[in-house]
Amino acid sequence: MAGAVSSLSVQHDKAGLLESRQATREAPWVKAAILTVALSFFAIFLLLPLVVVFVEALAQGWETYLTALVEPDALSAVKLTLLAAVISVPLNLVFGVAAAWAITRFDFRGKPLLITLIDLPFSVSPVVAGLIYVLVFSSHGWFGPWLAEHDIKVIFAVPGIVLATIFVTVPFVARELIPLLQAQGREEEEAAVVLGARGWQVFWYVTLPNVRWALLYGVILSNARAMGEFGAVSVVSGHIRGETNTLPLHVEILYNEYNFAAAFAVASLLALLALVTLAVKSWVEWRASQTVAVED
Amino acid sequence: MSIQVQNIQKAFGSFIALDNLSLDFPAGELVALLGPSGCGKTTLLRVIAGLEQADSGRVLLDGEDASDTHVRERQVGFVFQHYALFRHMTVFDNVAFGLRMKPRGQRPSEAEIKRKVHELLNLVQLDWLADRFPAQLSGGQRQRIALARALAVEPRVLLLDEPFGALDAKVRKELRRWLRRLHDELHITSIFVTHDQEEALEVADRVVLMNHGRVEQIGSPADVYHQPATPFVYGFLGAANRFEGSSSAGGIAVGASTLTGDAQPEHGKVVAFVRPHELDIILQPDASGIPARISRVLTLGALTRVELEGQADVAGQHFDVELHAANPLVAQLAAGQTVRLQPRQVRVFAQPDTAGAA
């Protein structure tokens, strides 16, 4: 668990150590210069936009803000965003665990290919991902005629949005688990088998508890991406108000209509989601580092 | 319970780990599998446990063929070199694991489990650590917990894979003695793998020496030490000085010198081995014996080790002699001195014609 999850806190400790030693301490002006560069960058590019979102959202008062949020189209966008996340996150959880397990525990042909493919959604532009689904499922696409015959709508409908969301969130869970499972090796699992545990018992009582924090971490990141995805979803959505608009798409529509207050009000929801994600992520990191202290 | 392995063959790719190996382990004994790394000892242990599948051959547990029995039905206890304790569980839960994993029908009640776990923790003298996590224990404590965990399911055999390999020298010695006492109490058939000859000789009832996937010798610690069957065994069981020569009427001719040895073959090339403490240093440079020059004299506690370089016919060879530090001879030795070496005890092996077979 000491890998990705707790790396930040570990480095913090090392920094304290470096500061306390004469030999590795920097001159005060160097420290000040580097701090200024880092902090101003942080303020201008990260903090300022976040503040602007909330300031703009509340610029015309609470009433306008709340109205923008409870308006039917906005509510439907919230529902659709939640639906896409509720379907794609558990699916990716199952897929991520299975893929990580297969890659670290079995030898099979095409393993390097699978490892590479898991990263595809990271490396390809989300718009391309959306286009792929349009090509495959739209009325002119490969399965278009068959889908039309059976009266199934994928593109410009909810299933397309869910598919696109699943695509962009595929790597998160697997990516967190693979290095951890590799580092842990098989000994504990072998010990469990010798002690009489069956396959699922080994997984449930030994493997899973050891990766629980990485798993949660992957789920949080996966969820944040699922709710915030714009590009891929935008291509397959068709932007039908009240039907196929997710929160990010709804923000864009409002903005294009010069309805800035409402646009920022809805955007503030996404910003809040980001803050909550960060808070939960920090908590998981903290818990993980506590567990490492006890278990390692 | 007795264990027999018959004609076990196991290869990893082109590397042959076990080469048509057969062995009997009688019930109740503590047997050491001893050999250099890569000799196949751990693979053999894992084949017996069922963690590794042999390419061919059979494993008999109590006379019954267990080759197709799954690990979890073999009722073996396995102790890993790096403990393999479940790091997210307390010591108590670790030891209780095997009992809790039993099918519902055979699973003891929680009260019974509790009693049993504490009994085992008392056996390994660590009951006071029941609520700790493995990371809070020392290496020696972890290995004792691992042993308690293995014993919890009442295994018919106990298999230990380099159980003390990851521990420091002092703890290792303590645990060795402790394991021997534990075995004398429980009398459970046990096999432990080690590459440390001292450990094998001190702890085991019998020692199996392995090399290149084959058995070199089986015997009691005294047997294998005093009657090594092959040059490999002699060399592996302690420091050895090696002399190459040929068998002649008066003894073994090494260059211009002659050594007298026990039971030597009648003729042909031979290899003679002498332990460092069985090699005498003779100060007269023209006496009979192997000529050598002292390169270093080291005193370590009660023993003095003299390192020598061979001269004349044995030039380039390195010899070690061990003397008691109190030996009056020690004071007369200095680096650069030329002396003669005369063995008191020589072990002679015929040199096979094919090179490298020894």
Characterise this structure:
The complex is a heterodimer of chains A (296) and B (358). Chain A has 296 residues and is mainly alpha-helical. Chain A has 15 helices and no strands. In chain A, helix 9 packs across helix 12 (199-228). Chain A is flat, with a radius of gyration of 23 Å. Residues 1-11 of chain A have low confidence and may be disordered. Chain B has helices at 41-49, 91-100, 110-123, 139-152, 169-186, 197-203, 221-226, 231-236; strands at 3-12, 15-25, 30-34, 56-61, 64-65, 76-79, 157-161, 189-194, 206-211, 214-219, 241-248, 251-254, 257-259, 269-274, 279-282, 290-300, 303-310, 318-324, 338-343, 347-350. The longest helix of chain B has 18 residues, at 169-186. Chain B contains 8 helices and 20 strands. Helices cover 23% and strands 34% of the residues of chain B. With 358 residues, chain B is α+β, with helices and mostly antiparallel strands. At the A-B interface, helix 11, helix 12 and helix 15 of A face strand 6 and helix 4 of B.
Short description:
The complex is a heterodimer of chains A (296) and B (358). Chain A has 296 residues and is an all-alpha fold. Chain A is 79% helix and 0% strand.
Biggest sheet details of chain B: 6 strands, mixed
**Average pLDDT of chain A:** 84
Helix content class of chain B: 10-25%
The unreliable regions of chain B are 354-358
Q: Tell me what portion of residues of chain B adopts beta-strand conformation.
A: 25-35%
Tell me the structural class of chain A. Answer: mainly alpha
Q: Report the end-to-end length of chain A measured between terminal Cα atoms.
A: 9 Å
**Number of extended strands of chain B:** 20
Poorly predicted tracts of residues of chain A: 1-11
Largest sheet of chain A: none
Strands of chain A, count: 0
Head-to-tail CA distance between termini of chain B: 35 Å
Shape of chain A: flat
Apparent shape of chain B: elongated
Percentage of residues in strands of chain A: under 5%
List the chains of the largest interface with their residue counts. A-B, 21 and 28 residues
Task: Tell me the radius of gyration of chain A.
Answer: 23 Å
